[in-house]
Each structure stands twice: as structure tokens, then as C-alpha cells.
Specification:
Largest sheet of chain A: none
Radius of gyration of chain B: 23 Å
Number of strands of chain A: 1
CATH architecture of chain A: Up-down Bundle
Oligomer: heterodimer
Radius of gyration of chain A: 16 Å
Largest sheet of chain B: 5 strands, antiparallel
Number of domains of chain B: 2
CATH architecture of the largest domain in chain B: Beta Barrel
Subcellular location (chain A): Nucleus
Number of strands of chain B: 13
Strand content of chain A: under 5%
Largest interface: A-B, 45 and 39 residues
CATH class of chain A: Mainly Alpha
CATH class of the largest domain in chain B: Mainly Beta
Number of domains of chain A: 1
CATH superfamily of chain A: RNA Polymerase II, Rpb4 subunit
Order of helices and strands of chain B: EHEEEEEEEEEEEE
Organism (chain A): Cynara cardunculus var. scolymus (Globe artichoke)
Family (chain A): Belongs to the eukaryotic RPB4 RNA polymerase subunit family.
Pfam families (chain A): RNA_pol_Rpb4 (PF03874)
Keywords (chain A): Nucleus
Helix content of chain B: under 10%
Number of helices of chain B: 1
Chain lengths: 130, 182
């Protein structure tokens, strides 16, 4: 990647390079489920640190809840990257959600405040009942 | 951000291991792939290589002329971890110095938050060093989770490590630290 290319990278505007826009992103809670299962396969340092981190920063623990959140967010025309930031940080208000993922308001998609609010409410419901 | 990536690599099986057949050969290829994967550790484009989730396809082996080793093209899916400029992430504080804070985030050991990038916070070194926001009472101490925004990312080829500079200037950052008063 050239220096100019790096200059342009900005996740806030969803400028993160084509290969990553297309790559499947995973939420911390999803990674946690996968790594727990693979626990005896690899015991290297990168793996260890990742497992520790995603265990601490998984907002959803129950596998069903994790699946439900993914399903819920998939219904909102979000880029993979945006979906995972929301699922990881679980913002509580519309304003906070936009501060975490400024791009959800741009790119000409229909995300009015009401739709975002409903999404956040549904996310916290899943959390409450997991 | 963790990414799920499909990769195509070549795995070399030494000639002496080739008396194995069928399942045993597959196992040898998988073991070899896991070793290579762990040794690779990270790449500039994909970030840290965390774990292989599935081995999707083993192609036809090609014999290498001089050594007699066999090279198998393999297709597999793995998890990688990379942070992007402008991404909001959460880190865990592990070192507090006068001029700033070091945090961990997944496999990244050094996220640096300079005191210049958190102007609301002042350094205090009472019994435990911390950064304190005197207006809100919010305190950043060791082991606290801090929500911050990535300002820049650097990859060090020789060590195969990433480092990032992060900041707190933005709405709803630090946020989760408020209330952690140890």
C-alpha cells in the first residue's frame, strides 16, 4: 500500500480498502465462540491474547443471543464493518451510535433516527433476555 | 476488528513423510499448515493471524524436482485481527506514564494514548499513577477499559507487530471508563 493510500484510510467514512469491505467481519462475541471451540488446537501468543480480549469485550455471551444480534443487524443495510462496530460497542443512544459509526448516516442509506433507535432497542432486548 | 479471511497457501511435505497415505497424509498437511500459520504471525495487509477455522480444500500435490518434497496448494479460512484508522475500539490499560498510556487490544500490545490526545485528563501519581478528569471525576487506571479512536497504525515488518496511536478526542469516547473508580 502506498503512503497516499494509507493517508486515505478512514474507517469513519468507511474507507478501509476494498478487500476489507468485502471481507467478512466478526463481532467480538462471535470470535469468542469460535476461539473457545478451537482452544486446544493452537496455543500461540496471538491466539491467547485474542481469546483474552474477546472474552472481556463480548457484550453477548449466549450463542443464541450472538446469532440473534447478527440476524438483527443484518436486516439494516449495514456494511460488515459497521455491523461489527455496533455489535461490539453496543451504543445506547442514537447520538452515540452515530458517533461510533459516522458512516451509518452517510452514503445515502435510509437510516433515520427512528430506525437506528429501534435497532438499538432490539439489541438491548436481546441482551436483557439472553 | 476481527476478520474472516479465505486464503490460498502452499504447504510443503518433506519426501520422507510421504509413505503416509490417505487420512495420514491429510493430517500431515494440516499439521504443517498450522505450524506455518503460527510461524507467520502477521502480515501487513491482513493483520495478526489468529486461528484457522476450516481447511476447505487440498489441491493436487506437485513434486519439487531437486528435493523430492511435495507441494500442496491448500485453501483455508482463518481469523485475523487488524485495526483501521478512524475505527473506534476498546483497549485495556497496562502501563501509565507521565506522557501517556499504553493499552492492549486483542493481539496488539502497544496502543499509545498520548497525554496530548486527552487534554481533559491530567496525570496524577498518588499511590497508583492515573489520569484524572477533574471535572467529571473520570479516572483512567491500570486495567481499565478505555474506548478510543485509532489515529494511526504502524506495522513493523521485522518484529511482525502492529502498533497504533489512539486518541480520546471525540464524542462518547472514554465513556466506559466513567464510573470505574478503583
Amino acid at each position: 500500500m502506498s503512503a497516499a493510500g494509507e493517508e486515505e484510510e478512514n474507517a469513519a467514512d468507511l474507507k478501509i480498502g476494498d478487500e476489507f469491505l468485502k471481507a467478512k467481519c466478526l463481532m467480538n462475541c462471535e470470535v469468542s465462540l469460535i476461539l473457545e471451540r478451537k482452544y486446544d488446537q493452537l496455543q500461540q501468543i496471538v491466539f491467547e491474547k485474542s481469546l483474552q480480549y474477546v472474552k472481556r469485550f463480548s457484550r453477548y455471551k449466549n450463542p443464541d443471543a450472538v446469532r440473534q444480534v447478527r440476524e438483527l443487524l443484518s436486516g439494516y443495510q449495514l456494511a460488515e464493518f459497521e455491523l461489527c462496530v455496533l455489535g461490539n460497542l453496543c451504543p445506547e443512544t442514537v447520538e452515540e451510535a452515530i458517533a461510533m459509526v459516522p458512516s451509518i448516516k452517510s452514503r445515502g442509506r435510509v437510516h433515520d433516527d427512528e430506525a437506528i433507535e429501534k435497532m438499538l432497542n432490539d439489541m438491548s432486548l436481546i441482551k436483557k433476555f439472553e | 476488528m476481527y476478520l474472516k479471511v479465505k486464503l490460498n497457501w502452499n504447504v510443503v511435505i518433506p519426501a520422507r513423510n510421504l509413505d503416509l497415505n490417505g487420512l495420514m497424509l491429510q493430517k500431515a498437511i494440516l499439521v504443517r499448515l498450522l505450524d506455518t500459520f503460527a510461524a507467520k504471525k502477521a502480515t501487513k495487509d491482513l493483520g495478526y493471524l489468529v486461528a484457522i477455522t476450516t481447511l476447505d480444500k487440498i489441491g493436487e500435490g506437485k513434486v519439487r524436482e531437486h528435493s523430492g518434497d511435495v507441494l500442496f496448494p491448500v485453501e483455508f479460512t482463518c481469523l485475523s485481527f487488524k485495526v483501521f484508522r478512524g475505527e473506534v475500539i476498546e483497549g485495556v490499560v497496562h502501563k501509565i506514564l507521565k506522557h501517556g498510556i499504553f493499552m492492549r487490544c486483542g493481539p496488539i500490545e502497544y496502543l499509545y494514548l498520548s497525554n496530548k490526545k486527552m487534554s481533559d485528563y491530567q496525570y496524577h501519581s498518588l499511590e497508583n499513577p492515573c489520569f484524572l478528569n477533574e471535572q467529571t471525576g473520570s479516572r483512567i487506571v491500570k486495567d481499565a477499559s478505555v474506548r478510543c479512536i485509532v489515529i494511526g497504525v504502524k506495522y513493523m515488518e521485522a518484529q511482525k507487530e502492529f502498533q497504533a496511536v489512539v486518541g480520546l478526542e471525540g464524542d462518547y469516547l472514554v465513556y466506559k471508563v466513567v464510573g470505574i473508580l478503583l
